[in-house]
Amino acid sequence: MQEPLLGAEGPDYDTFPEKSSPSPGDRTRVRAPQNKRVFLATFAAVLGNFSFGYALVYTSPVIPALEHSLDPDLRLTKAQASWFGSVFTLGAAAGGLSAMVLNDLLGRKLSIMFSAVPSAAGYALMAGAHGFWMLLLGRTLTGFAGGLTAACIPVYVSEIALPGVRGALGATPQLMAVFGSLSLYALGLLLPWRWLAVAGEGPVLIMILLLSFMPNSPRFLLSRGRDTEALRALAWLRGADADIRWEFEQIQDNVRRQSTHMSWAEARNPHMYRPILIALVMRFLQQLMGITPILVYLQPIFESTAILLPPKDDAAIVGAVRLFSVLIAALTMDLAGRKVLLFVSGYAMGWGPITWLLMSEILPLQARGVASGLCVLVSWLTAFALTKSFLLVVNAFGLHVPFFFFAAICLASLVFTGCCVPETKGRSLEQIESFFRTGRRSFLH
């Protein structure tokens, strides 16, 4: 008989013993990927994050260009520039709201693919814009697509990845978003603003093409009673020679225990609201650190400071540093742990990638689709408030005021991390969920 996932109750009971001794077969099944298809599926999905990062910072080189446009219908005032920069976040909030339904209705993969429709339409509107309203609508649509993918992609990646590589794969959404931003900054050195929008269509089309050949999440398929399809998807992800019975049984058992959607009565249970509350606060604090307004207005920020290099070059350098930092985080997250990086690293190595990963790891399966959308909704409504007010505050009080505020939030985030954020390194999603059910302190050390 196979050993249970969790030990028996007793005085020395430890939900997640630090030194477990699984059989060699179980160790192979749990920790080591049996083929590389899971990496291909992850790459196909996170192309959506590339588009998200590209679209988010689209305004950085475009606002200065449009402020000096010869076309009066496209020339931006300061007020219009703030709307052009911030309306993306309203679209992203709407995308997060829609993900609360689509994530569980269509599934993670189809929801990601659906995001290509507003994304492609938004880029087309901005590329052919002949009025301010087309720019705003295009930004809103690309924001909607970004919010939808922000809620769906981390969940999809966490549900197809093995515990041993989930940290590295879980960092790829942020890695690709940063790479998308860097690509925009680099292309901004070469292309006019309309062609920047045209170039944004490419990754969207590639994502659709690749994802059409990828499987859906086995956990989602099991939750819909499609057991045979789920088994086939897991076998494709792990490889034909892998023994997936143990993993499939654990997923199947967890899904059966949560076969219904979360009710309001269940939402009052600590094992439900605690992980959701942790994820919500992390996303709220992540945005209050100021990353979105800084990235959206990066080039105008550099233009207002005494710098040696052209603002476009400085923006590209920032993008390269962010990419390098997220790459380090992806390589070290499964070694150092999530919590350590939150404490000792900057945004790009810590709160940037880890917040997305932890959200997808700790949310209970029964509420994962709705809760991930709620997290994105809260995140981007916060981002809208900051992005819309950033230029107004800078013009009224100076650049130092918002940055002092961002620094104070960073200190508060350290306190929250120490008090409330669990370490999830090396744990399966079923084990993480069991911790919130049992509340065993061993998990936190």
From TrEMBL:
InterPro entries: MFS_dom, MFS_sugar_transport-like, MFS_trans_sf, MFS_Trehalose_Transporter, Sugar/inositol_transpt, Sugar_transporter_CS. Residues 1-31 are annotated as: Disordered. GO terms for cellular component: plasma membrane. Its main location: membrane. Residues 41-425 form the Major facilitator superfamily (MFS) profile domain. GO terms for molecular function: transmembrane transporter activity. The chain crosses the membrane at residues 38-63, 83-102, 114-135, 141-162, 174-196, 202-222, 276-295, 315-333, 340-359, 365-386, 393-416. It comes from the Eukaryota. It holds the Pfam family Sugar_tr. It is a multi-pass membrane protein. It is found in: Cell membrane. Keywords: Cell membrane, Membrane, Sugar transport, Transmembrane, Transmembrane helix, Transport. Belongs to the major facilitator superfamily. Sugar transporter (TC 2.A.1.1) family. Glucose transporter subfamily. This is Solute carrier family 2 member 6. The lineage of its organism: Eukaryota, Metazoa, Chordata, Craniata, Vertebrata.
